[in-house]
């Protein structure tokens, strides 16, 4: 339902007339896009609108707002109960439930937008913003499916806007250390990588809820369901628990993959994988009768992605993702008593090279190197600091705000660590794992009526350029989904 509705141009005469009239009455804020590239608004502040402003959206909007360094002019959320805290903090910001109405009424007053909704609405909202020339910050994962990620990557270039995905660990200076260690050849070329998480930490692998319950006051349920197939309201969907259902979320991979796969993807210069294979955990409620719940993500999964050698890492790489509390085992070079990744080993990254092993925790924290010659290196906080380091979440949001003011292709823009040129391909790789999981669960009734076959339980071959599985066409239904009603991505 996202339709292009670009604001009309503002002539210099119109601008001067409005400026004179406003100056007589009171102080005013002029959006930067009115003045054009190279001009600075009188307030020298970015006018930001937040869409999805409860939960993670609260920190996204307020980190970008940066204690008043920018203007927060509008807050939009389909659930005003979840948004209450943000509304109270910013009483002067205009409040909306429908982002389309917000753009229609305030499009000329908005320079940039943060998008922190459920995964299934990221692409439609971000596209609508970019088509109006708005810079965008979109929570991870960038999109719900692979096709959407490709479309947003191309749209950012087409509309010449500054973009950033919300995988804040990308701005952690510790990742610079990992890249420097690798580029020095300390661990040699990497042939094997492991990434793992304790997610899901929400109910997952459970039967589909069927009870219809009253919709809470303040929640527009039709807008919440948005582009997904219709379901009646149930607290099993909202808030937060939507992550475990394919209609709305992207499971453990979508929640943590853009954080945890990022250090390997960035350090090794990875691109599109060429093949994948997976296995998933089963749930038994009845003896000998595994539950079949294709609507929901499994309780645990392992996904193996293979990447070709490249100019950065001159070795093919096999990357294995583990979730649901599963993790890899200790390589020989890491002492038996030392944890992997996080102190409790709940999340982490492991890169195994010819000469040694490199590991880190979530967001690239606390990287270490273990070499075959017995040397151990540890990152010291501050070694690779920058002006944003003391800020919340490594200054990931503030760097984006500064780049928006500097403009498209400015040095500030080029310095961003997760603009869509990078975040798009990363997201495609992450979501590729979900294509494998959903393909693994496809089943067909046998002709004799005795049980089922599972044709997707094979190695899948991927043509990244054309976004296509080449040896199992049924898997391609998960590259691009069908939207409900007249919702569109165009």
Written description of the protein model:
Pfam families: GFO_IDH_MocA, GFO_IDH_MocA_C2. This is Gfo/Idh/MocA family oxidoreductase. InterPro entries: Gfo/Idh/MocA-like_OxRdtase_N, Gfo/Idh/MocA_oxidrdct_glycsds, Gfo/Idh/MocA_OxRdtase_bact_C, NAD(P)-bd_dom_sf, TAT_signal, TAT_signal_bac_arc. Residues 212-268 form the Gfo/Idh/MocA-like oxidoreductase bacterial type C-terminal domain. It comes from Dyadobacter subterraneus. This protein is an alpha/beta fold and 490 residues long. It contains 13 helices and 20 strands. The protein has helices spanning 12-25, 32-35, 56-65, 84-89, 99-106, 122-131, 146-158, 174-183, 221-225, 251-267, 396-406, 411-414, 420-440; strands at residues 47-51, 71-76, 94-96, 112-115, 135-138, 163-165, 190-196, 275-280, 284-286, 289-290, 301-307, 317-322, 348-353, 356-360, 368-371, 376-378, 444-445, 452-453, 460-463, 468-469. A ten-stranded mixed sheet has the order 16-15-14-13-7-12-11-8-19-20, with helices on one face. Strand 1 (47-51), helix 3 (56-65) and strand 2 (71-76) form a beta-alpha-beta unit. The longest helix is centred in the C-terminal third of the chain and has 21 residues, at 420-440. Mean pLDDT is 91; it is low at 1-29 and 35-40.
């Amino acid at each position: 339902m996202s339709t292009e509705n670009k604001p009309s141009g503002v002539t210099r005469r119109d601008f001067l007339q409005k400026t004179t009239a406003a100056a007589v009455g009171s102080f005013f804020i002029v959006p930067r896009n009115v003045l054009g590239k190279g001009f600075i608004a009188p307030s020298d502040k970015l006018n930001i609108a937040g869409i999805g402003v409860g939960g993670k959206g609260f920190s996204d909007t307020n980190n970008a707002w940066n204690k008043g360094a920018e203007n927060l002019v509008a807050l939009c959320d389909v659930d005003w109960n979840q948004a209450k805290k943000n509304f109270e903090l910013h009483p002067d910001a205009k409040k909306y439930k429908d982002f389309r109405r917000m753009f229609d009424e305030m499009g000329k007053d908005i320079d940039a937008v943060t998008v922190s909704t459920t995964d299934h609405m990221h692409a439609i909202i971000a596209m609508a913003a970019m088509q109006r020339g708005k810079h965008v910050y979109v929570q991870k994962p960038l999109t719900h499916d692979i096709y959407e990620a490709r479309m947003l990557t191309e749209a950012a270039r087409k509309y010449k806007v500054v973009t950033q995905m919300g995988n804040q660990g990308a701005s952690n200076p510790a990742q610079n250390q990992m890249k420097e260690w690798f580029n020095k050849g300390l661990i040699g070329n990497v042939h094997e990588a492991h990434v793992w998480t304790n997610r899901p930490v929400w109910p997952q692998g459970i039967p589909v809820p069927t009870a219809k319950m009253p919709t809470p006051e303040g929640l527009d349920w039709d807008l919440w369901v948005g582009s997904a197939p219709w379901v009646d309201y149930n607290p099993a969907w909202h808030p937060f628990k939507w992550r475990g259902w394919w209609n709305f979320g992207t499971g453990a991979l979508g929640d943590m993959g853009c954080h945890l796969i990022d250090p390997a993807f960035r350090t090794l210069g990875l691109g599109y994988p060429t093949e994948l294979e997976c296995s998933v955990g089963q749930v038994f409620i009845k003896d000998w009768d595994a539950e079949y719940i294709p609507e929901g993500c499994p309780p645990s999964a392992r996904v193996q992605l293979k990447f070709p050698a490249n100019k950065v890492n001159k070795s093919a790489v096999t990357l294995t993702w583990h979730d649901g509390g599963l993790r890899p085992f200790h390589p020989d070079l890491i002492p038996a008593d030392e944890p992997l990744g996080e102190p409790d080993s709940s999340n982490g990254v492991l890169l195994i090279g010819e000469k040694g092993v490199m590991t880190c925790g979530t967001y690239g924290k606390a990287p270490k190197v273990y070499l075959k010659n017995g040397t151990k290196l540890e990152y010291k906080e501050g070694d690779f600091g920058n002006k944003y380091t003391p800020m919340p979440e490594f200054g990931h949001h503030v760097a984006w705000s500064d780049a928006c003011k500097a403009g498209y292709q400015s040095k500030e823009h080029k310095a961003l660590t997760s603009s869509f040129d990078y975040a798009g391909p990363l997201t495609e790789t992450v979501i590729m794992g979900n294509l494998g999981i959903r393909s693994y669960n496809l089943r067909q009734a046998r002709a004799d009526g005795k049980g089922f076959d599972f044709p997707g339980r094979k190695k899948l071959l991927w043509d990244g350029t054309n976004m296509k599985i080449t040896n199992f066409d049924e898997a391609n239904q998960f590259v691009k989904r069908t939207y409900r009603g007249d919702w569109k991505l165009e």
